[in-house]
Amino acid sequence: MLRLTPILLILLYAAAMWYFSLWRLKAQLDSNATPLTHPRLTPMLERLGRAMDLPPIRAHVYEIAPINGLAAPDGRIFLTRGFIDKLDAGAVTEAELASVIAHELGHVSHGHTRRRMVDFAGQNVIRAVLGGVLGRFIPFIGGWLAHLVASAVAARLSRQDEFEADAFASALMVKAGLGTGPQKSLFRKLDALAGGRGNAPAWLASHPDTKARIAAIEKLEARWGIA
């Protein structure tokens, strides 16, 4: 039992940090978000809702400049003000933003937020245990290597979540009569709109490569018989 105590403490610490981050995120969203009532997006919310046999989808605008979509832990969907500004400037279309909302609905549907809590705790255990072991054999850089391994595991799990959310969005967009075209066209724009993914290696990136995401959607199209 004594041998398990450090691991249990790590898990408790990870859980506490996770819940604190969720509390902080909720506070930020509550204080800096407004309901999404954009007249060009309201029809999209209605179409997505009908496709799910639900009332119009409710979404919110997170008043920050970076371009992003967000599924909050409580199930709320957000588009950033930066995305809305791009719509008003003609850089993106209503259907393309509908695909972002559909993608975030995919995260909610698959329970990715809850799953990431478990992943987060597991990564902390990997980081601590592997760091302790490697530190004995490789002083000074053992902890760094453990952090690198944990980060790579986290990135891989995140990429899997993104592919699942993409597939959900594709199915929903097709059912809503919007097709997968807007989803793919937005992916082609995102690197330029958001400034690219930077210099991080692909295996450390939290989101899949754009070409891989489009290829995965096209595999779905072939399976569904969509030209």
What is the approximate shape? globular
Radius of gyration: 20 Å
Q: Tell me the number of strands.
A: 4
Poorly predicted runs are 198-204
Compute the average pLDDT: 81
The residue fraction in helices comes out at: 55-70%
Q: Sheet with the most strands?
A: 4 strands, mixed
First-residue to last-residue Cα separation = 59 Å
Figure out the total of helices.
8
What amount of the residues lies in strands? 5-15%
Which structural class matches the secondary elements? mainly alpha
Write the topology of this structure.
Layout: H1 5-31, E1 33-35, H2 42-51, E2 60-62, E3 69-71, E4 77-80, H3 81-88, H4 94-110, H5 112-137, H6 142-175, H7 181-194, H8 210-224
Parallel strand pairs: 2-4
Antiparallel strand pairs: 1-2, 3-4
Helix pairs in contact: 1-5, 4-6, 4-7, 5-6, 6-8, 7-8
GO molecular function: metal ion binding; metalloendopeptidase activity
Organism: Paracoccus limosus
Family: Belongs to the peptidase M48 family.
